[in-house]
Write a structure and sequence with these properties.
By secondary structure, the chain is α+β, with helices and mostly antiparallel strands. It folds into 2 domains: 227 residues, PPM-type phosphatase domain (Phosphatase 2c, domain 1, 4-Layer Sandwich), CATH 3.60.40.10; 160 residues, no CATH class. Helix content is 31%, strand content 27%. The strands form 3 sheets. It has a 7-stranded mixed sheet, sandwiched between helices. Strands 2-3-4-5-9-8 form a 6-stranded antiparallel sheet. A 5-stranded antiparallel sheet has the order 1-11-10-6-7. A hairpin with a 2-residue loop joins strand 6 and strand 7. The protein starts with 7 loop residues before the first strand and ends with a strand.
Amino acid sequence: MTDTLPYYVEVSNAQRYYEGQYICGDVFLSKRLKTQNRILSVLSDGMGHGVKANVLATLTAHMSLNFAEEHRDASTIAQIIMDTLPICSERHTSYATFTIVDIANGKVSILEYDNPTCLIMRGGNIYEPEWQQVQLENVDHEGRSRTLHTCEFVPMKEDRIIYISDGVTQSGMGSDKWPFGWQRENYVEYVRKSVLNDRYIPAGKLAQRVVDMAHTNDNFDSKDDTSCGVIYFRDARQLIIATGPPVDEKSDKDYVERVMNFNGKKILCGATTSEIFSRELNREITDNYDESVKGLPPCSSMEGVDLITEGVLTLSKVETILNKITSTNSPLGNSPADKIVALLMDSDRIKFLVGTKINQDHHDATMPVVIEIRRTLIMRIASILENKFIKEVEIEFI
């Protein structure tokens, strides 16, 4: 989110690889610049598929992100990238295309090179911004496009920006139903109906629907790397995680009140933490032994709290899962750690309220190496949430 936008900016994506490949030739990169109240998101499509396409798309995406971060204007960004990218000796075209979405100062700027035109939805309607052409100089390779497209607009609540690789619009090509591919008009109508049928559909879910439909068009045998990114401007979903007892027991009452008065979902991590809440609220904790998962203590439940788990062991597993999954809509299991991750992925603004009283159990030399001091573990989890999943995270130690 930016200070000049009164709503949250959700960024997510979905991908499906060319059939038989284990790496994608399309690359997404997104970055939240806290000090600038700014969000950057890039999609690059490398020529072909596999490792070569991935390397070239990765190069293009990183260049796009870095040059955009430096506040270069659209023509400068495009010229530098085009001067740097190699040319295919056979096809005489660029090895990669790109879309750059820059959200800052209360407005959206989009720069596209040879990717399908971004779709912008304003609620259930299609919004058409005023696109401008950027003509590049000194691009003399025959067959290589010299034209880029750019636009700017002020986003409104419930706006969505959908940006794709051509694996979406070309899906189904050669089939009886789509002999010339799905094409833009059919893809746009599919997105429009999806939004009308589910007004508040999350960004990740909409992106996955588009990719899955393209896969269906290809008769479940993808003929190209297929990617969809979605940016959604909406009200924020909030989550608070309380873990560890406060350093001063006199703060227990305030600790509990702050969590229970929080406007959002609530997670308690740690036996001592949940005991403090049970005592201060005079509410019983129920253990859910039938949901136990090997390696982690089971979840518990209490009125007014969405989830209760064990502490450091479970949070350590949360970090592992966050490092492993690739997007906010990645499939998850049913362990206590997976349940925490599911709530994290479904939230936008996440607050960690971390007690700093030392738990002597975690200094036992026989405890597993993976157990970290709670403070360090939370800071690592917060870093992943911010940098990988573009979440807004706040940590307060008490």
